[in-house]
Write a structure and sequence with these properties.
Blueprint (H helix, E strand, L loop, with lengths): L4 E6 L6 H11 L4 E7 L1 H8 L7 H9 L6 E5 L5 H7 L4 E5 L14 E5 L7 H10 L2
Parallel strand pairs: 1-2, 1-4, 2-3, 4-5
The structure holds [cytidine-5'-phosphate] glycerylphosphoric acid ester.
The site of [cytidine-5'-phosphate] glycerylphosphoric acid ester has 18 residues, from strand 1, helix 1 and strand 4.
């Protein structure tokens, strides 16, 4: 059977257990995991704030997760189709906060949404740190 490439995307700011679990579960769906890490500009456009860690730092962290085979910077949400084709991905994985949003790519790859890990988020971690200072 041909080997399967999985692609997923995220900001992965203030890297936490929800991030490592989604990467492990994504990798388990295929043979090779490629991860698009949102650029600082894309993150600002999506969330209205700069990430705590820069795109170079986030890229380095994600690249060093055991389940991850390759990383690249995701510059724009609109380029998903190009990224899937460029990396020859067979499966696109997204967290279920994106449920349905990328179904239009199912003509070129399988699209899978995984449930988020409950009760952990970058925003909550930042709020907890700010509140405890
Ligand atoms: N995640 C999770 N459980 C959490 C938090 C995050 O499973 N408690 C998953 C998200 O569903 C996503 C990945 O971890 O699959 C990265 O999360 P974010 O950094 O919040 O990703 P986001 O900013 O939504 O970027 O092109 C789409 C974007 O790049 C996705």
């Amino acid at each position: 059977m041909a080997s399967k490439t999985v692609i997923t995307f995220g900001t992965f700011d203030v890297f936490h257990v929800g991030h490592v679990r989604v990467l492990n579960r994504s990798a388990a769906l295929g043979d090779r995991l490629v991860v698009g890490v949102s650029s600082d500009n894309l993150n600002f456009a999506k969330k209205g704030r700069n990430p705590v860690f820069s795109q170079d730092e986030r890229l380095e962290i994600v690249a060093n997760v055991k389940a991850v085979d390759a990383v690249f910077i995701e510059e724009s949400l609109e380029q998903k189709r190009d990224y899937v084709l460029e990396h020859k991905a067979d499966i696109l994985v997204m967290g279920d906060d994106w449920q349905g949003k990328f179904d239009f790519l199912s003509d070129i790859c399988q699209v899978v949404y995984l449930p988020r890990t409950p009760s952990v988020s970058t925003t909550a971690i930042i709020e907890q740190i700010v509140g405890s200072s």
